[in-house]
Amino acid sequence: MKSHSGAKDRFRKTKRGRWTHKKAGLRHLMTGMSSKTGRHLRKASFLRPAETKILNRLLPYA
Predict the structure, then answer these.
(1) What pLDDT, on a 0 to 100 scale, did the predictor assign at position 13?
(2) What DSSP state is assigned to residue 3?
(3) 45 pairs with which residues across the strands?
(4) What is the arithmetic mean of pLDDT over 36-58?
(5) pLDDT tens-digit series, residues 7-42
(6) Where are the domains of the chain?
(7) Number of alpha carbons in the 13 Å side-chain half-sphere of residue 11
(8) What is the DSSP letter of 8?
(9) Helix, strand, or coil here: 2?
(10) What is the CATH number of domain 5-58?
């Protein structure tokens, strides 16, 4: 079974089995964004349980 190559680059599994990902919105058009918003977008966030089921199917060996 192959792993999904797009998901491989975007998600990482933690030791507890949760999935982390980088937040969107830090590539361009950032001049109108407040500094506070930019700082909050830098941190990685976790996926919800419903999305976790999908990702476990896409990345079976993670």
Answers:
(1) 95
(2) P
(3) 21
(4) 95
(5) 999 999 999 999 999 999 999 999 999 999 999 999
(6) 5-58
(7) 24
(8) H
(9) coil
(10) 4.10.410.60
